[in-house]
Amino acid sequence: MLNYVKTSRLSTSGDICHTKEVERSPLKKKFKESCSISKSELDGAIAAAVKMAMAEQRSDLDKIVTTAVKTAIDDMLVPQLASLSSELKHTVVAVTTITSRTENLEKTVERIQSKCDLTQAAARSDRDQLTALQLKFDNLAAKMTDIEDRNRRSNVRLVGLKESEEGDNCIAFLRANLSKWIPSLAGREIKIERAHRIYSGKNTTHPRTVVFKLLDYTDRQAILKGARAASPVKHGGSSLLFFPDYSHETTRKRKAFADVRKKLDNLGIQSFLLFPATLKITYGGRQILLRSPDEAEKFLLSIQPPTGTSAEDQANVLYTLQEVSNETSFRPML
């Protein structure tokens, strides 16, 4: 384009020189006057020539830029796009694999959830059955305890008799000495079915307990009542104690009142255990039945608050006792 402009300028300079020559010649001067071009027309022609050259140059430049851009794309972007396409394919494969595994995991979780539901249902059923069986077992245990207590209802336990004191015939020994130990039995024929000492695997210096079974339940009651009236009962310098014979479970329940009974005795309050394990207390001119050691402890707390107990604590105790009384924990005998 610059060459074209230079050529145009050279042509213009030649025209000027030629114009000067024409001006020197009359003929040429006359021709000049008939063929003269104004400056504005010349400038327009130059501008048009420049535009044409620039258009040609722009077309060539566009072709060059297009070719360069295409070459750059082919050299740089195409390999990268191919690499991205390959990575994308791998990513798609990985996503597909993960999706498949996720679906398998979902199915596995659903199966596990189903099994868990079945297991929970079975556990609830087993728990209900276990509760029912436990209830039946407790009922059967209570019946067995009752049967055992009834079977022992005519038995008496004799504690404190020295070993071998009874000789070879324990029944004859008891018949000969019961009326001596318990004066209220004098003249009463006591019928004893069998008598023996309880086996104990423990090495102890205490004499083993003697258990004897009476044929008549009234004789058993007479022995226990007479022993309480004649207390303390002595034989050869040893103190003898007479107790009812109960099952292991009933004995355990009755022993649970031992500490409370000692506290009541220290306070001068008379207490007595009723069958199977109910504490009978005479206090304030009324008789009270306490079904458990906890009830007995609350009763003690109500009649003798601990030293240093604040008025607020005593009020709380009284409120508790009021609640317990409303729930018939204290059951006065009618």
Task: Please sum up the structure shown.
With 334 residues, the protein is α+β, with helices and mostly antiparallel strands. Helix content is 65%, strand content 13%.
Q: Quickly count the helices.
A: 9
Share of residues in strands: 5-15%
Number of strands: 9
Strands of the biggest beta sheet: in what spatial order? 2-3-1-5-4
The class by helix and strand makeup works out as alpha+beta
Tell me the major beta sheet.
5 strands, antiparallel
- End-to-end Cα distance, whole Å, is 136 Å
In words, what does this structure look like?
The structure is a single chain. The chain is an alpha+beta fold and 334 residues long. The protein folds into three domains: 1-22 and 38-151; 153-245, 2-Layer Sandwich (Alpha-Beta Plaits), CATH 3.30.70; 247-334, L1 transposable element, C-terminal domain (Rec A Protein, domain 2). Helices cover 65% and strands 13% of the residues. The chain has helices spanning 2-24, 26-35, 39-151, 170-181, 217-230, 248-255, 258-266, 293-303, 311-326; strands at residues 155-159, 192-197, 210-214, 233-235, 238-244, 271-274, 278-283, 286-290, 330-332. A five-stranded antiparallel β-sheet has the order 2-3-1-5-4. The termini are far apart. 9% of the residues are buried. The model is unreliable at 1-10 and 324-334 (pLDDT under 50). This is L1 transposable element RRM domain-containing protein.
